[in-house]
């Protein structure tokens, strides 16, 4: 009988991965990467124009439901969603239904003893700047099974079937719960030992280079950020916290919130979603706030097919802010349990503050800690940048991402409302490793928090 | 700023809980507990009779859908389910839809320095023997919010609202994926420091006493077993494995299986479920195999209301077997990833073998390891008992639960199919602690595995 010691093996390999990631993070000279990305932008023919819905090709509104669907029944559809909760009025809204799991994968490989990551100059029609730095593979199932009828997905073979390398991380992670119905993608990092074919749209970068690019506005795309958040790395040069599991009280707190936010979510005809009206070129909320649906025509030179039309969602600009503090055992982060209409499992861990800000300056009832993070003095702001959401589904949607260190005036633990809780960063990362517990905005902030280095005046202990 | 060391606090308290549980497990004289349960059976007036559907009170078949529903729209309904997978024929079947989360809670308290657990002599109409040992609280949301119009749920106040005690475990766990559509219950253990009112249907038992009762057929109900499986205890007297997290490869294996088994699950009218036909007193599969739906009339003296009628599901007897082995770092268990029609998240970790056996002796394609566990010599069988599934929804449904130690003839690790994988018991328990990863049959087997003691010739290391 095999007597393999699974635990010892695991600990050995996790430690080694963490050490190699930390080494890669220390090499952070971005060199000519921004120029390469700019050059790729120039090289790629790309034009995105808004069009009326009638000019969508192979997309149409179903006669009965008014749902916006592709004629293959594939890709995704824009439908209506009804959320019913006891003691509250029903909430209805448009939602993207995309019941297939895509792959967001970063390929890793050692060069001269240092881990590098194969990143892509990726065009997405809704991206601010059109091209951003994406993971090696960013493919819906329709993409990589070729429903597009275009060319296959480059490098997909490292992530599916009998793999050529070693899986470092691999979990199903959610996307925006305000816009997607239970959508998840498989987030993977795979290390290969083999030679990898080169391509001008792709470059091998160190983790340190990626971290520096993450400090800039709208440069590292959402798909790359969520995969980066899964790496077993606490930060650019900080100590690695011991692998810990969340305590019973934290798990119970999350369970309690899921039970408290129990609701029934059902799909409904888009044409019957009250509060939104359909015009020639958009479906828009009567207040002008909330999500809207629009259509674009895309002509591109370096994507799977060269011309297509598709619907996109637009959304007001928002804020996602994480309050952190340093304690004897490392960094702690203040998360909230947030129930969004499309969340796969009712409630996920979310940033301290997550809200729409555009047009909401007159909020009667601002979310907790909004003023705290917006009025933080510069020395308390550890990270601040605008980052885009998925440009394949959203039209120029971005959020301000902030990491703010708590000051002495911050509410004491016992004064926090039940919706918020301090976790160690190690605990939050373990929730991420299981998949399905941490929302995409919080995962972006974890990737940003990991990117901080001592040179930015940030140390990882109190 | 608070500098609380969350990690140190946690580790201290987990260790202390584990030690106290181990102490409670050593006291295993069942004393007069079986007699008390028998006495409760005699004291409770209870009669359960099958009735035709027309004699159901407040339950009826909806005219259009043929769904079997309660006239309040509460409790649960029996509907149809369609599972669609690429490249496979659709699968349809009846399913219970119960979109509310109940509470299964065990109250714990120290007496003379030893942890005891408040267990209930619980009548459920479908139980074999009618009365079994249940958790302190076993209540649907309808129960404890009094849709029954009966009396409130006893001891519920220890599990909801501002609690009187300390939560030891608390997670949402699934129920039978072949019969329920995404149903989950909150599994909780709460320790109180306060005096607790006594009641003749409840007794404080040590963990050791519960473990001895678990060795008997059909005595500890499913609701109690699933809660017990969440306790941070590896076994009656074994060493406690360090808190470990599953390795990247195990998490990736589960993610891969979820992706591979991707499917679309939709509710459909019960009347259109092919293969089943509705008679006066049952809805039955044309082969006589699979689930059937029937109705019962219940007269009972010690439940929330004294007379009611309700539907129940019946199912052929099955087998759930876990193959285990001892390695240098503790016990390892062979699990499979199993996709059942109603599973909340596509695939859950399941026993090595889980199948229906009644009427299936002529299986052309038996599941892997079936012969291995059925033909194991007595000295390799660590646990064997018949245990009932939930008597509030199932009519006399039970399964044979087996724990079998692998012998030298067992397939080598590299010869296992991709659907099976060895995990350490510590890893499996951590999957349980997060909720939603381990199916109810596997959780029963974990509770049974934890109940084994050295007196039964079982030690926890190789």
Automatic annotation (TrEMBL), chains A, B:
Q: Which residues form the dTDP-4-dehydro-6-deoxy-alpha-D-glucopyranose 2,3-dehydratase domain?
A: 32-231, 250-449
Q: Which InterPro entries match?
A: EvaA-like, EvaA-like_sf
Q: Output the Pfam families linked to this UniProt entry.
A: Hexose_dehydrat
Q: What one GO molecular function would you report for this record?
A: lyase activity
This chain belongs to the protein called NDP-hexose 2,3-dehydratase
Q: Which organism is it from?
A: Streptomyces minutiscleroticus
